[in-house]
Amino acid sequence: MNTRILVGFLWKTFWLGGLAGLIASFFVKPEQYLNYLQPFDGMEILGLILFFLVLGLTFAMVSLTGFFAYLFVHRMGLNLFKGYWSTVQIALIIFILFDIIYFPYQSANNVALYWFILLAAAILLIGWIVAKLKSKETNKKAFVPTLFFMVVFTTVEWVPGLMVDGTDYAWLMVVPLLVSNTYQILNLHRLNFQEKTPVQEAKQKKKK
C-alpha cells in the first residue's frame, strides 16, 4: 500500500471538510461576523474564522472515522448476508429516513412535520446524486452501497448535531460531513495504492 497516497487522501478530506464548515458559517452565522464589522475588529473576525474552521475540521475527522467504519461494515455485510446485503442496506436506508422524520419531530417544539420530511428528502436526494455519479464511474453495483453510506452513515455521524437545541450547529455539522463523505466515496476508486518502481515513475515522467 502506498502510504503517501493514503495520507494525501485523508489530508484532502480533512481540509475540504474544514473549509466547507467555514464557508457554511458565513451563511448560518452571518450576524456573528457582522457584529465585528461595524466597527471593524480584525482580531475578533480572525478568531471567528479560526473557530469555525476548527469546528469544520472536527466534523471532517468524524467523517473520516465514519468512512473507515463503513468500509468495515460493508465488508462484514458482504460476508454475513452475501447476496442479500443490498436488500439489507435498502431496508436500513428506509429505517434511517423514517428516524430522521419521526424522532426529531417528537422532541421538537412548534416545528412543522414537513420540515423534517424535507430534511429526509434532501439527504436522500444528495445521496442519490452521489450514488448515480459513483455507479457511472465504476459499475451499477456501486449504487446501493454508495447510497447506504451517504444516507445511513452521514445521519449516524450527524446524531450529535441533531440533539443540539436549535438548528445552527446542526447545519454547521452536516455541511462538512456531506462534503467529506462525498469526496471520500467518489475518490476511493481513483486511488492507486500500488507502489511504483523507479522504472515506472521514469516512464510516467516521460509521458508528461
What general outline do the C-alpha atoms trace? globular
> What is the straight-line distance between the termini?
24 Å
Q: Supply the number of structural domains.
A: 1
> What is the H/E order?
HHHHHHHH
Low-confidence stretches: 197-201
Q: How much is the radius of gyration in Å?
A: 20 Å
Major sheet summary line: none
The percentage of residues in β strands lies in: under 5%
Mean pLDDT figure: 86
- According to DSSP, the number of beta strands is 0
Organism: Oceanobacillus iheyensis (strain DSM 14371 / CIP 107618 / JCM 11309 / KCTC 3954 / HTE831)
Pfam family, one: KbaA
Keywords: Membrane, Transmembrane, Transmembrane helix
InterPro entries: KinB-signalling_activ
Q: What would your notes on this structure say?
A:
The chain has one domain. It is globular, with a radius of gyration of 20 Å. By secondary structure, the chain is mainly α. The two termini are 24 Å apart. Helix 4 packs antiparallel against helix 5 (113-137) and helix 4 runs parallel beside helix 6. It is built from eight helices and no strands. It has helices spanning 3-28, 30-34, 42-81, 85-107, 113-137, 143-163, 168-187, 198-207. The model is unreliable at 197-201 (pLDDT under 50). The chain crosses the membrane at residues 9-28, 48-72, 84-105, 111-131, 143-163, 169-186. It comes from Oceanobacillus iheyensis (strain DSM 14371 / CIP 107618 / JCM 11309 / KCTC 3954 / HTE831). InterPro entries: KinB-signalling_activ. Pfam families: KbaA (PF14089). This is Activation of the KinB signalling pathway of sporulation.
